[in-house]
Amino acid sequence: MAVAVLELANISKHFGAIQAVSDVSLSLHAGEVVGLMGDNGAGKSTLVKMIAGNFRPSHGKMLLEGTELVLHRPVEARQHGIEIVYQDLALCDNLTAAANVFLGRELRRGVGPLRILDYKAMYRRAGEIFKELKSETRARDLVKQMSGGQRQAVAIARTMLSEAKIVLMDEPTAAISVRQVAEVLNLIRELRERGIAVVLISHRMPDVFDVATRVVVMRRGRKVADKPIAATSPEEVTGLITGAIEQV
Amino acid sequence: MAITLDRAIGERQRGWLASMLGSQAFWVLLAVILACIFLSFATDSFATPKNLYNITRNFTFVAIIALGMTLVIITGGIDLSVGSVLCLCSMILAVVMNAGYSIEVGIAASVATALIIGAFNGLMIAYLGFPPFVITLGMLSIARSLAMVASNNTVVFQFGPDHDTLLALGGGAWFLGIANPVLYMIVLALLTGFVLRWTKFGRYVFAIGGNEHAATLTGVPVRRIKVIVYMISALSAGIAGIIQTGWLGAVTTNIGAGMELQVIAAAVIGGANLAGGVGTASGALIGAALIEVIRNSLGLLGINAFWQGTFIGGAIVFAVLFDRIRNVRQSE
User: Fold this and answer.
1) Which residues does residue A116 pair with via DSSP β-bridges, in sequence order?
2) pLDDT in tens, B53-66
3) Given A8, A112, B171, B273, which is the most exposed site by the fewest CB atoms within 10 A?
4) In a domain, A73, yes or no
5) How many domains does chain A have?
6) Domain limits at A186?
7) Which residues of A19-44 are buried (b: 16+ CB within 10 A; e: fewer)?
8) Considering the domain boundaries, does residue A43 fall inside one?
9) Is A123 helix (H, G, I), strand (E, B) or coil?
10) CB contact under 8 A, B13 and A91
């Protein structure tokens, strides 16, 4: 098998006396969607925040395509091709879809101090990305007027600006309608087909079983299961989350 | 499928006509124009060159500060100190020139004062998390008091060797008979409009007002931008102070008192949203113009000046009412 895009080796994180994540090893390959499940406080968010550069692991190593990765700030994760879609999407309602996609990475034209925003190029590129995502989202429209699914598309389009290798998604389907959930799951499939590794944090069993290729279950900071989706069932995963099944 | 998707993505939801009709500033501008037409017919004194010259010159000081205020309001903040900062900057200019220094030194001292005050406001807000209302309210008091200290609460009307240059700067009409303050206002408005629309800085100002948390997460230097915005606001007050000093030919410690409310009213009437995220440079000018036309017309129509506040307050409520009605319709 090819080198893993991301390899976590015996990662632990403690905050004072509290052990949030203990001894988790995990590998992530291109084109994989890993459903990361677990009850509140199981350590999912802490684990993802270490990958995203918000926290540094107390112990253990992270390897990005075989070389050791040390992150001090979220911006560094982005520079390494690790993108995050935040649970609240982090969108500015008063700006257009294109402006949100390019926020913090605006395209400009001209020279020196006279460089001005390149609206045309940003609209064009954002439009291309929405097309790749097969999402009916208009680059020039204000995000304020968009549906939940379109807003997700804008947040996901951000991750596709650069050559992202890994996309971390925090509860992308938590607060949207059924139809919009289907849209978001399609977006995730698009990412997978482009060879991006996706980590999907979710509480929603059907979503995970719909798009994920693998499921990782955490309980009390430990990884208790790591199985291909075909080799498990919602009942087993539920048991693992609650602790009815100890470990597999 | 591909064609319809292409078309759907490329489409614009609203054309230029729809977005113009949807803008508050457009309707206020229309109100200003209609009021001017009405006044030209209803009174003999409105459409005279002298009155028009007065109107244009009177509203420029509020308009110039409203440009800076608009930036602050777009980020979701407020700057209550502008009236006092105008007074302090005028007084610093007057005192320095009165002491025999050249106009260049006077202006440099005045601008530096404005920038220091703006930086102080901005740093307290961005880095120490002060509510903008509180820190600028404090500065409203501090700046006026410092102006009194600097002048020992006297009126300054002697500006040293460059006395005439200063008066020409503020009171002259160097181009096509247009009063100088109007020229400065137009240049500053074009500059503000350009910055808001075409620069990364302008984009970030809007982003902070739209969703500050999101701006931070996406790597926008939120704190730095906020400090700069408050510096620009104070600078606009300082510039207005310098020009007004030249125009009036004298500085007292009560100039600019209560001006912050007129400035905020101008920005809000022109479409800036106090909740943040919305505002334009042209709106600031149009809002200031409406206030001045109301003020001027009441005098010409022989209506008691005590009614002025009612009409200006009514204009604020009415202008924002348009926006509310539109929002209510949208959310339905």
Assistant:
1) A109
2) 888 878 899 999 99
3) A112
4) yes
5) 1
6) 6-90+163-242
7) bbbbebebbbbbebbbbbbbeeebbb
8) yes
9) helix
10) no
Q: Specify if A139 maps to a domain.
A: no
Q: Is B219 within the bounds of a domain?
A: yes
Q: How many domains does chain B have?
A: 1
The SS3 call for residue A58 is coil
Looking at per-residue pLDDT, the higher value among A248 and B12 belongs to A248
pLDDT digits (tens, 9 = 90+) for B45-54: 888 888 888 8
Whether B268 is covered by a domain: the verdict is yes
Instruction: Tell me if B19 is assigned to some domain.
Output: no
Give me the pLDDT at residue B224, please: 95
The predicted-structure confidence for A155-214, as pLDDT tens digits, reads as follows 988 888 887 899 999 888 776 777 778 888 888 998 898 889 999 998 888 889 999 999
Q: Is position B332 within any domain?
A: no
- Chain A residues with CB under 8 Å of B10 CB are 127, 138-139
Looking at the DSSP assignment, which residues form a beta bridge with residue A214?
Answer: A34, A228
Q: Cβ(B60)–Cβ(B173) under 8 Å? A: no
Is pTM, for the whole model, over 0.80? Answer: yes
Q: What's the pLDDT at B206?
A: 96
The whole domain housing B238 covers 26-36+47-324
Which residues in B lie closer than 8 A to residue A141 (C-beta atoms)? Answer: 12-13
Q: How far does A52 lie from chain B, in Å, by closest CA?
A: 12
Question: Are A117 and B200 in contact (CB < 8 Å)?
Answer: yes
The ipTM estimated for the assembled molecules is: 0.83
Per the domain annotation, does A120 fall within a domain?
no
